[in-house]
Amino acid sequence: MLSAPHTTNRRLASSFIERHLADGWWPYCVGHDASIEATAWCSLALLDRTPTLQPAMRFLRNSQNEDGGWSTAPGEGPSDWSSSLAVLALDLAAPDGSFDDCIRRGISYLLDHRSDLFDQGTTWLISVLQFLSSARMKRGWSWSPGTFHWVEPTSYAMMALKKARRINSKEIDTAIECATDLLLSNSCDGGGWNYGCPRTLGKPLLPYPVTTAQALLALQHVPEAPVVKSGIQYLSRAAFEDGTAFCLAWAALAMDGHKEDISKYVTSLVALQKPDGSFGRNLLSTAVATCALAAAEGANPLKTTANSRGES
Amino acid sequence: MRHTRRAFLKAAAMTMALGGCGVHVKKPDATPPHVTAAQQAARRTGESTVALVRCESYEENIFSLLKAHATALGLPDFSGKTVVIKPNMVEFRPGRPLVTNAAMIKAAAELVDYLGAREIVIAEGPGHFRDTEYLLESTGVGAMCSKLGLPFVDLNLDDLEKVDNKDGMTRMKHFYLPRTICAADAVVSLPKLKTHHWVGMTASMKNLFGTVPGRKYGWPKNILHWLDISSSIIDLNHLIKPSMAIVDAVVAMEGDGPIDGVAKNSGFITIGTDLAAVDATCARAMSINPSSLPYLRLANEATGNIEESQIKLIGAPLASLRQRFALPITFSARHAPSDAKLQAI
Hints:
heterodimer; A: 312 residues; mainly alpha; two-stranded antiparallel sheet; 13 helices; B: 345 residues; alpha/beta; two-stranded antiparallel ribbon; 14 helices; globular
């Protein structure tokens, strides 16, 4: 059970986030324009305050593009990586099914917009061959349409699809399996993940703690994989070498997802809380930190269970 | 029979996925960049003046060293203006010269203030690392901004403005740029001088990649590479129109830059209002022929001067500062023979 001080910390942070809810949305930084990522994360941080979330859920529904995705800045440009976070937030904040249509369209967008590695004709041909042979191609999600896959957007999409409990689709399973293969093969030498390029020109690149945490959260269903274990080892050290609230919060969420003790992460995190309840430089950091404090209370919104679908 | 057919189909799928059988793997845009009439019309005319400023250490009074050349350089009058200073904070590795030194930010801010700026903002969108707070702390940039009382804007998370690029070299009809950049009256490029394994060298012009917001284009901003790096460099310089550049080459990077290279005690700073000329001068100081860098060849047509005859050098003599930089090992392999490998001078 959480000790009293951490509960107070979480309450303070949640109140800070609530105070800065604009017209159903949150910005990255106070006083700025809407951000789908910030809105999604702030929603995840306030899952215990559902009345506050209704305007945010309506905002996400109203911001959804015709193709079923979302744009990082609503109304600005095509759908992109932020779609995964919108789906995740809607799914967790509205378990009563009231936004299921929105979620289904979002999932369709995600399944139709994985990374583009080949031209359309070749992609179609490979898909047919894979279907016939039950083979799998490593494939994830990109930051923006028509570009290559990277660790962070792939991790978000996997988290969103795994949480889609109400939709039973083999296509989701296959997409998660292909993305799992990608992440498992894309870790850095010695453990951990960076943005998605473990080597360049034959030389190994270093991992980063935040992207490692994101990959670990996406790979909760394969806890015995050697790269998952080495990633956990790397993160247990690197999170404190980085030491920011943003990093410690991500580490706490990931470690909790893998059933590691997170008390030292949370202790270091709460030491960084400001008097107004916020963490770090922006609302995004505060929201991720609040989710980490929720994890310390056994309410990690990103925790999934044994199988790849997040089902118990 | 079924097992054999499945094995065959699986092998065929994997072979195609690995790029065999002549499949069409997506590659970066290989269309040769074409300088449009509009870009040529916008190209700077006349001679450019660049100052090479000897500076052995970050402990020196760098502002005074730069200020001494302000008049001769024709530095802009920033009276009443909002000026954004854009350093390089791509990543942090202890002991590696990856980012603009915090002392340079202080000097640049003092110079911009001397030139009359009403408001000064330090802004950057780190290309690899989402945890900007860590970068601010580890590089000392955050502490310097606090000491100077200057705001820092993370361009990766800034509000977006859609900027038309119809006269651009890349196929991007528009870019989404940070509002802080679009709203600024002037932008100062403040890079770290480094070799670069895709471009040959990164200095004041490539530094503008850090203005492209990660919330739109990702971490890393890979799309700029896929659009053709040289073309992206030119487009961003045309759209943003930086007023001047100050290049941190007190300690530069050589070898497998821009991340994995090693420190080179170069002992100089380059400053000027024509970024192509500034970069060309940096190249010469690194013993690189500027014309061997594709982005500078394009810049010569579309933005400013790279030829020695068109650049008036003031300050320290180039010959006294020139050193041979170890070059990126694979740069030559990525270009057609006609584009030439990096040519030493």
